[in-house]
Every structure is written in structure tokens, then in C-alpha cells.
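Reopening this ticket.

The earlier resolution said the output was attached, but the attachment link was broken on my side. Pasting everything inline this time so it's all in one place.
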Amino acid sequence: MRSIDAHRQRLTDLNLTYRPQREWIEGRGLLIVVAHFFSGVGAGAWLFSVALDYDSGLVIAIALVGLAGAAHLAFLGQPQRFWRIVMRPHSSWVSRGLWGLAVFLVGAIPYTVPAARDSALGPVALGVSLGGMAVVLVYNGFVYAVSRAIPFWHLPLLPMLYIAYGLRGGAAALLVAAAVAGDVFDTDLLGVIKLWVVVSSAVLVLLHLALARTAGGASRRSARELVAGKVSPVFYVGVVLLGLVIPIVLGALAGATEPSRVLLAVVGLSSLAGDFYIKYCIVKAALYRPVVEELPTPRRYGARRAAAGL
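Inline output:
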């Protein structure tokens, strides 16, 4: 019954000028958004944990990236076909991302062991983990940006937007960990970094929407879906309020006063919600380029020749 309903939905979509993208957002397709959320947050958490020398953060980052890998496998539906994707890093950003996840875990897991970290293996494991982390941060945006059929994704700012949200998600995860465990690292420094990344991501969101509107066609319609269409309630509550307004206001308040553990937790959780919803909204608002492009109006001379059969 579900396959019949999906088939009818596809037939209905074919009658629309701008068809909605459904494969990566509805049903099991939502798992790809979950995978990109966990992988971005995990990569960002690893970077800040290494910089702040926070051992528990290293474990948290590995767990988040592991959840991303599990979500990828669940999205495939038939994990036995996993090797077909893995064997295409030369042509597929999904394949590159999965390789990045694997390389990250190969380096990150040994690095969390104090004995291995303090040995000659430590710098090698750290370098491998940072290389895999960089691939994970970059691939999340490029896996969408290479899609020419969806102009809203095929914009130059999208990879930068995903990198920024991965970094802010990692910082947010560590703020939540600090709120639970107490003062375990320099939360003031991380709070300043977090506030700066949140403000930067807000600017990138505005620039991406402005660029989408100037691109016209399906890209403009996707931007309209975000700000005034069916996706707008989720956009304004999840992305703007939870992901931008609350972290910026409370982050500025925390910088001016002595931050409490509750305040750190609220900032971190609110920012994580915004990190998830920006990725959800970008995928949900995506519209395909029209199957048949609108033809230009013929010139009079060309029209006369066509009427004459020339």
C-alpha cells in the first residue's frame, strides 16, 4: 500500500512545474538528515575537544560519528550493498563522506587511549583523525551542492554553511557536556567561540537565501518555501528562534555575567536543535528544476520563417 501511495505521489509531482524533493526527507530518507547532523556535530566536537584537551569530549565525538555511520547504513535499507557506494570515492561525495567517517574512526579511537596517545603512535593517530574529520565537515555540504537538478542546493555558499553549522554543533555538544559534568575545560573561551560561530552562521543563512532569490526559478521558489511557505513554521521556530536568537542572546548574557550550568545547557541544546533544523529545512524546501524549461519568445523574423515552413 505504501509503495502504491508513493507511486501516486510521484505521478502527482510530475504535473507540478517545480517538483518537491522527497527521497532524502520523507520516510527513511529523513535518516540522511540525521546522519549529516550527527557527523557534523561529531566532527566539530572532535576539533574543539583536541584543542581544549578534553578527553570526555573525544569519546562524545566518536559516539556521535558512530551514530552518523549507523544512520547512513539504516538509510541504505540493504546494508549488503554498502560496498557499491564505498567503491566510488572518485565520483561520489557520499562515498567520500563514508571514507572520511572510516578514516576518522581509525585515527580517533586509538587517540582516546592515553597510553597510545602518549606514545609514538599518538601524533599519527591525531593526524589521521583530523584528516578524516576535515573530510566529514566538508562532505556534508558538497553532497548536496553537486546536485544541478536542485538549484537551491547548487549554490556556492552551501558547503560553507554546513561547515559553520558543524563547528557550532560541536561547540554546543561540549557546552552541554560541561553543564552536566561541571567545569572541565575553559568554558569561557568555548562560549566566545560558540557565539562567534553562531553569528557567522546567521550571516551565512541570510546570504544563502539572498543568493537563492537572485538565482530565480526553482531556487527562488525554494527560498520562498522557507520564509513564507509550508516549511516556514519549522524555519522560524527551529532555525531562527532556537538556533539563532536564543543562542545569541543567552551567549551574550553568559559573556557579560558568570554563566551557570543551566544557562550553558540551554545554549547548547537550543543550538543543537537549530543545527538539526537548518539541515532539515534545506532538504525539505528543495525543489527540482522544471522538466521542461520555459521556451523564449521567438523573434518576429524567426516566427515568419517558421510560419513559411523555412
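Reporter confirms the inline version is readable. The chain has one domain: 20-291. Residues 20-291 form a domain with the Formate dehydrogenase/DMSO reductase fold fold (CATH 1.20.1630.10).
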